[in-house]
Design brief:
Blueprint: E1 15-20, E2 25-30, E3 43-49, E4 60-62, E5 84-86, E6 92-93, E7 105-106, H1 107-110, H2 112-124, H3 130-134
Length: 154
């Protein structure tokens, strides 16, 4: 009888966990399912920060006073009064450097109100194109925005 070799758990779009990216540890959101079969090199991500984003960042979504789940704060002194989601066009992680066991939840499945904030902002503003797939914007009616001032994007 052949022994089965356990396969590593794959990341799913919407998984959130702590990763050492962008000058320190940040909560990150996986934007695309990880496929071990196709040897995906770098999985696209967004990160959550409590620091006011620099003006040179192209894609940030203010979460304002929206409370983030208490169970996400597994690191000391990480809770901030305000948070932003930063989605730069080239931000990604290498799956082999992280364990899917570190996942704190899935934003699509476990936190639909937060997922809706991200997707409404994506649909109404000129946000990173990689979020269109994450939010399934290709299958929704396009909304005409004359300028980004009215959609409350930063």
């Amino acid at each position: 009888m052949r022994r089965r070799i356990p396969r590593p758990k794959k990341f799913k779009a919407g998984d959130i966990f702590w990763a050492d990216v962008v000058k320190g540890f940040h909560l990150i959101i996986i934007l695309q399912d990880h496929s071990i079969d196709n040897h995906q090199e770098c999985i696209p991500i967004c990160n959550i920060t409590g620091t006011l984003p620099n003006d040179n960042l192209n894609y940030s979504i203010p979460l304002n006073d929206h409370p983030l789940p208490d169970n996400w704060w597994t690191r000391v002194n990480q809770v901030k009064p305000r948070n932003w989601i930063i989605c730069q066009p080239k931000d990604c992680i290498k799956a082999e450097e992280y364990s899917a066991e570190a996942v704190l939840g899935n934003i699509k499945n476990d936190y639909p109100d937060l997922f809706n904030i991200i997707c409404e902002t994506t649909r109404n503003c000129l946000i990173a194109p990689r979020l269109n797939n994450f939010c399934n914007c290709e299958n929704t009616q396009e909304i005409m925005i004359v300028d980004d001032l009215r959609c409350k994007c930063e």
